């Protein structure tokens, strides 16, 4: 398998984490400049002119969350039970779209520095406490408290872990976010335990802006 994405965490990191945890055979292809223009123009590989794209056995797959579901199914992280599968989908959409993409849209895509600062402060006051609260409740309601669903990794765990890399422990953002996390003890313990599972990966992780 080859996973094509820019040299950022963004929409690609959950898939990278999942394939790493699964010990899958895969190549992390970080597309840049001229390679990107060439790849984007190739409609057989990059159907929608956007990445992430997954290549497997000569086929190309698009859309980050569809790819995530696909590799989750391949590697046993997508529950068979319909109710649990719904929970996995629900949490994945909540974390990937409502929690993480909102941060990107409200802050990273804003060009004006003053406006960016104001939006970031608003996220610190409202967005992070709200989403940390949702996640704390989910962990509280799960008998193991160690994972989002059941007692082992499922798809949304990789999405949540990727928020730690992109935001909560990111050198540019952790001083603002870690004090807020102190109010959510189960979530804090979750991040500590889960990142410990990825120690080697995290020690060798390329530093990206987000
Ligand atoms: N809904 C798509 C969105 C993909 C997307 O917006 N990709 C961005 C990078 S995060 C991209 O390829 N941007 C370059 C471009 O559109 O030319 C997904 O989730 O995969």
TrEMBL record:
Name the Gene Ontology biological process terms. glutathione metabolic process
The GST N-terminal domain covers which part of the protein?
1-79
One example GO MF annotation: glutathione transferase activity
InterPro entries to which the protein is assigned, alphabetical: Glutathione-S-Trfase_C-like, Glutathione-S-Trfase_C_sf, Glutathione_S-Trfase, Glutathione_S-Trfase_N, GST_C, GST_superfamily, Thioredoxin-like_sf
Residue intervals of the GST C-terminal domain: 81-210
State the source organism's domain of life: Eukaryota
CDD domains assigned: GST_C_Sigma_like (cd03192), GST_N_Sigma_like (cd03039)
Family matches, as PANTHER family: GLUTATHIONE S-TRANSFERASE (PTHR11571:SF150)
Q: What is this protein called?
A: Glutathione S-transferase
The organism is Euplotes crassus
- Lineage, please? Eukaryota, Sar, Alveolata, Ciliophora, Intramacronucleata
């Amino acid at each position: 398998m080859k996973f094509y994405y820019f040299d950022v965490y963004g929409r690609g990191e959950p898939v990278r984490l999942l394939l790493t945890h699964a010990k899958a055979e895969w190549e992390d292809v970080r597309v840049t400049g001229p390679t990107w223009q060439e790849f984007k123009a190739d409609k057989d590989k990059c159907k929608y002119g956007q990445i992430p794209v997954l290549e497997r056995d000569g086929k190309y797959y698009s859309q980050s969350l569809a790819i995530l579901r696909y590799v989750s199914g391949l590697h046993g992280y997508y529950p068979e039970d319909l109710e649990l599968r719904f929970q996995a989908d629900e949490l994945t959409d909540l974390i990937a779209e409502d929690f993480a993409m909102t941060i990107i849209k409200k802050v990273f895509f804003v060009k004006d520095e003053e406006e960016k600062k104001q939006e970031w402060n608003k996220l610190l006051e409202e967005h992070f406490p709200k989403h940390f609260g949702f996640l704390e409740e989910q962990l509280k309601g799960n008998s193991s408290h160690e994972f989002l669903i059941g007692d082992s990794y499922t798809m949304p765990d990789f999405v949540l872990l990727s928020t730690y890399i992109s935001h909560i422990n990111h050198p540019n953002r952790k001083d603002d976010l870690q004090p807020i996390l102190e109010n959510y003890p189960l979530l804090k313990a979750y991040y500590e335990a889960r990142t410990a599972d990825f120690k080697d990966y995290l020690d060798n992780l390329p530093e990206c802006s987000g």
